[in-house]
Protein: FAD-binding PCMH-type domain-containing protein
Organism: Tardiphaga robiniae
Amino acid sequence: MAMAGGIDVVNRMKDGLAPPALVLLGGVADIDAIRLSPQRDAIEVGAGARHDAVANSDVLLAWLPDLARCWERIANIRIRMQGTVAGNLLALMSGYEGAVLLSALGASMVYSTRDSRGDMIAVRKFGEAADSFFERGGLVEKLRVPLPMAGTTRRLLYDRSLRPILTVALRIDCAGGAVVSACAVIGGCHRWPFACDLPVAGVALSELHAQADGTARSAVRQMPEPTVPWFGVANYRETVASVLLSRLIREVAA
Ligand SMILES: Cc1cc2nc3c(=O)[nH]c(=O)nc-3n(C[C@H](O)[C@H](O)[C@H](O)COP(=O)(O)OP(=O)(O)OC[C@H]3O[C@@H](n4cnc5c(N)ncnc54)[C@H](O)[C@@H]3O)c2cc1C
């Protein structure tokens, strides 16, 4: 079993998990590097980059500042200095936030297995592939976060006020005063977040405000029934997800 910062691995060992072998990833060269890809079209975040390093990375602050600012809100400083990006994703905990933010940005995981090297999978699709990833001895090397096209402004907005039961992220790319593409992600309701592209390409930012409620409602309606148990009022999470998403859309429009 791979062990990065060890926060989840050690907690699970306290609960009885007994892996036959633990492999510490800390010494692997560049496992924590955060850099611009050679083609300058993506930021590569090493699997072992700590949350604090992501939040304070000069490269991310220069190229994807919203991601650094959102990541800064994860956990407390003790956890941020120890927990890693891949550990956050691969712990498969519904309340963890890495998969929400990275799915919204269209990031991919670059990984190897016992019989392949350099495979890639979109973070938003990883939920379906997780079991086979672990069966094949998957090891994540890095995350690849694509950059927006030249002339396009990218925003990532995020509401974690109801974490861990619900988190909502919105990524929106704009150019010339209109939306190029947008994606909403809802975390906390399933083992892996629900991501959905919003049909607002071509809409002028000045018109987005008026469409916010309808767009948010129809996105949330596509979400499969939550699988993470919830003991409060029925449909509360779905109703609130729609309200929070609508607020994020209006914030961009403003
Ligand atoms: C008190 C507390 C508060 C927290 N608050 C938040 C919060 O607000 N938001 C949030 O998102 N998270 C939060 N967390 C979770 C925290 O972010 C994760 O526990 C942390 O990121 C896990 O990283 P790690 O490196 O310690 O993982 P590890 O424990 O080392 O690994 C976790 C899992 O990932 C696998 N793994 C790790 N690296 C790799 C790799 N490169 N390839 C393949 N498999 C790998 C391991 O085998 C294991 O299954 C909190 C945790 C605690 C204890």
Q: What stands out?
A: The first strand starts at residue 2 and ends at 3. The chain is about 35% helix and 25% strand. The pocket of flavin-adenine dinucleotide is lined by residues 1-9, 25, 47, 74-75, 79, 82-84, 86-88, 90-91, 96-98, 138-140 (CB under 6 Å). The mean pLDDT is 96.
